[in-house]
Amino acid sequence: MEAGGAGEVDHLAGERATAQFDVDHMKVAWAGSRHAVDVADRMARLVASDPVFRKDNRTMLPRKELFKDTLRKAAHAWKRIVELRLTEEEANLLRLYVDQPGYVDLHWGMFVPAIKGQGTEEQQKKWLPLAYKFQIIGCYAQTELGHGSNVQGLETTATFDPKTDEFVMHSPTLTSSKWWPGGLGKASTHAVVYARLITEGKDYGIHGFIVQLRSLEDHSPLPGVTLGDIGGKFGSGAYNSMDNGVLRFDHVRIPRDQMLMRLSQVTKEGKYVHSNVPKQLLYGTMVFVRQTIVADASKALSRATCIAVRYSAMRKQFGPQTGGPETQVLNYKTQQSRLFPLLASAYAFRFVGEWLKWLYTDVTHKLEAKDFSTLQEAHACTAGLKAVTTSATADGIEECRKLCGGHGYLNSSGLPELFATYVPACTYEGDNVVLLLQVARILMKTVSQLASGKQPVGTMAYMGNVQYLMQCKCGVNTAEDWLSPAAIREVFEARALRMAVNCAQNINRAPSQEEGLYELSPDLLEVAVAHIQLIIVTKFIEKVEQDIPGEGVKEQLRNLCNVYALYLVHKHLGDFLSTGCMTARQGALANQQLGKLYAQLRPNAVALVDAFNYTDHYLGSVLGRYDGNVYPALYDEAWKDPLNDSPVPDGYREHLRPLLKQQLKLSRL
Ligand SMILES: CCCCCCCCCCC/C=C/C(=O)SCCNC(=O)CCNC(=O)[C@H](O)C(C)(C)COP(=O)(O)OP(=O)(O)OC[C@H]1O[C@@H](n2cnc3c(N)ncnc32)[C@H](O)[C@@H]1OP(=O)(O)O
Ligand SMILES: Cc1cc2nc3c(=O)[nH]c(=O)nc-3n(C[C@H](O)[C@H](O)[C@H](O)COP(=O)(O)OP(=O)(O)OC[C@H]3O[C@@H](n4cnc5c(N)ncnc54)[C@H](O)[C@@H]3O)c2cc1C
């Protein structure tokens, strides 16, 4: 927990004293409201003080024990949620702070939303109460051994039999085996299974079905159902607590009313009826989860930067040539230029995540009123932001590990496990490249419609300003000019639009649209990234323009926003120069200003990560401790490794002793 207890020394007190803003108010800005800070605080402390939720031994547990530990924690969490009558908000936070991937994530995160989004009212009435009380455990079984990205390529079949009013679920090939769903391997009793609907001899494509997989009596797989875990995954601990599973059906029968029938129905005679709604609503659960993944990116990156900032403030290496105390590594300009953009990105992702949640809620309300006009915007924003934020976060966690030097490589730093747990976010819920290509295709469509005078809306509205943005010149003359939000916004808009228009022109030169899209797909990725970065920068600017209480809080956020934007200008300078948005001199001025911003951020760095309000339990890092007392913690942690249980290791008698004795004999010859 945080420092302040009797006898504790705050080794970072000096750093905290230099902060130029009110940390308590920054906590509110980060969490979204005073209420959010208070609830999070209570739940984090509840978890941290409960011995069942201990996790410092997690990377040393063999897989079977780790899995059992996950079941124990999930059951205990549920017991506490019921005993304490926690609200949904409190329960979600409690699960977050337990911080161990497990079947409950998929049960609450995908199974329940899939039924809510795609089930009829009657189906929701039947299944949701069972799920809410954990009388059934569900997962989301979409991906197969042969196809994940290409959902329309899935092979599992659900063939309607009008004689018995049932669907027959079948896995016709090895590649049709469901493969990857979390919670499927060992825990789930039910799944929402995506399969090709076949009725009256016709294949109507992919639809969702609720299928019971295991007995509710003894948990054994039901007849015709083959189930198992797909095996160990990257890293120690990490995502290995999750039972990602394999599932095969051998002509398994389910009642007709277990097809999720909100979007389309099959009558008892076998007639297929599609409601008058876009087919893409079938992908609604993925859109929902992609939106939550953006919020999670800021959590993961803020954890990593919290560890790296605190440790860098405490770690010292080298000193002035003239002697004197050694230098805190956080004072090295190279350390700042690697770390501060990541800190700024954590804040940027937090605020764009907040905005995306608003967008998602708004679109959901419109869909309920049968207004589908914002579906494309929701898809483009969730897909693109999921891709850009998860890739940057995965890279950022690894950079934080390097920023902590050798100690960052130890499991006790928390960073290897954080990375191993986080990195599949670049793949699940849509491979990032596949998702960015979706965004790019929508951008290409928007460009092609500009000539007809159709005005783009939402986050693409800037493209309507094509006449101006295609020829405008950046007005920056001094480094300080880069502090203008209007100047920043304009270069990001001009870069994104010009890249999109250039790409569209190149595609038009190809023999066919399809060939053009295929040949230019690497360029299309960059077009999508430029557009999504514009959204993140814009939402950060808009956040800073709001009324933000607390001494110095707005100034710090403005500084972080400028760091984020100018770091991107520096990193993608090639784009900005090649599209003619700015000159090389203006690029140099941006970099000059970035250096000044880092210097202003430096005295606030530790307080800016304190504002995340993470307990030591949640951080799970000896390097990121609130009190900065790193060395005794590192030293103590080493002795907890099972290898140190005895001074002479197992295996000495069989493998070391004979070797050493033989060397002794040889030396006597
Ligand atoms: C409290 C919450 C806690 C949450 C905790 C969660 C923990 C997470 C743990 C991780 C679990 C992981 C789960 C999974 O991974 S589940 C499996 C996810 N799988 C995927 O994401 C597959 C990706 N593939 C796809 O989405 C589609 O196949 C793809 C979009 C790539 C292609 O679709 P399709 O074959 O239909 O073809 P098109 O590209 O031609 O698209 C046709 C039109 O549809 C539009 N479109 C596509 N997707 C969507 C969408 N989602 N919404 C709206 N519209 C969509 C597309 O733009 C095309 O439009 P046009 O016809 O106008 O061009
Ligand atoms: C930890 C984890 C948890 C998961 N949980 C679930 C779950 O609960 N439920 C579930 O149903 N699924 C789950 N999945 C599966 C996940 O959704 C898929 O792995 C993901 O959608 C990627 O699909 P794929 O594996 O088929 O990759 P592939 O599509 O085979 O990707 C391989 C490579 O091909 C590239 N590629 C593919 N298509 C294109 C294209 N059109 N253009 C250019 N490049 C392309 C990709 O960029 C990638 O580099 C999980 C996966 C992981 C790793």
UniProtKB/TrEMBL annotation:
Gene3D superfamilies: Acyl-CoA dehydrogenase/oxidase, N-terminal domain (1.10.540.10), Butyryl-CoA Dehydrogenase, subunit A, domain 2 (2.40.110.10), Butyryl-CoA Dehydrogenase, subunit A, domain 3 (1.20.140.10). It comes from Oryza brachyantha. FAD binds at T143, G182. Residues 283-444 form the Acyl-CoA oxidase C-alpha1 domain. Belongs to the acyl-CoA oxidase family. It is found in: Peroxisome. This is Acyl-coenzyme A oxidase. Its cofactor is FAD. GO terms for biological process: fatty acid beta-oxidation using acyl-CoA oxidase; lipid homeostasis; long-chain fatty acid metabolic process. Residues 485-661 form the Acyl-CoA oxidase C-terminal domain.
